[in-house]
Amino acid sequence: MEIPRIIIGGTRSKVGKTMISVGLMRALVNRGYAVQPYKVGPDFIDPGFHHLATGRYSRNLDSFMLDKHAILEVFVKNFKGADIAIIEGKTGLYDSADAISEKGSVAEISKILKSPVALIANVERLNRTAAAIITGYKVFDPDVDLRGVILNRAGNPRHANRVTLAVKKLAKIEVYGVIPRVNIKMPYRHLGLIPAYEREDVIRLFDELADLIERYVNVDKIIDVAFSAPPINFYEREDENEREKTIK
Predict the structure, then answer these.
(1) How many domains does the chain have?
(2) What is the CATH number of the domain that holds 105?
(3) Range of the structural domain that residue 156 is part of
(4) For residue 6, which phi and psi values (nearest 5 degrees)?
(5) Inter-axis angle of helices 46-54 and 196-216, to 10 degrees?
(6) Looking at the whole model, is its pTM more than 0.90?
(7) Which end of the chain has the lower number of beta carbons within 10 A, N or C?
(8) pLDDT digits (tens, 9 = 90+) for 153-170
(9) What burial letters (b/e) apply to 226-240, b meaning 16+ CB within 10 Å?
């Protein structure tokens, strides 16, 4: 089955994954795409943002609780009627339940789904060091399809140019965009419950995020990467002992 998809991962928590993921989802919706959102892990707050941004219910992909087949089932069956899947990661790309194995990590989900990954890095006050950090993520697990990076919280244009040059030349990876420091905060509420009277304001905020992404990120490139993802072979659980079939 052909499912255009990309995972938005991060070097750690608080690097802007949710802001950038929601902005990207909304930008794609504004371009006319039907976007199916997903969230790695058991988080229930970010999927609420995904729903407001896309109009489709976000689904959790939790490899700590679910086996590979169940992950694929959740992913494939909920994609029906969509054009592209955007999967927001959690914590750091390789962070796991036990800190040794990959169990429960974004990296594990990327391998189960055979999904390309775009990595977000906070480059505030960094240049060459950003290349060292990203190189570590690139070489740590060669089976993770890390395609490119989005550099967040850059300073002035001179800083943005310098850190981009360092990452391209030294980490030898494509830079999809450099986002400056902005004073935009996600509207977190108790239990993730956003009152109905606030939702129009939240959607306007998401449109601002979409404009930010369109301005500073190569959205066309991200679409191309998502559409380059390999086909997914998924078979119904009851057919495990029969010939594997591809869901059409």
Answers:
(1) 1
(2) 3.40.50.300
(3) 5-230
(4) -155, 140
(5) 80
(6) yes
(7) C
(8) 999 999 999 999 999 999
(9) beebeebebbeeeee
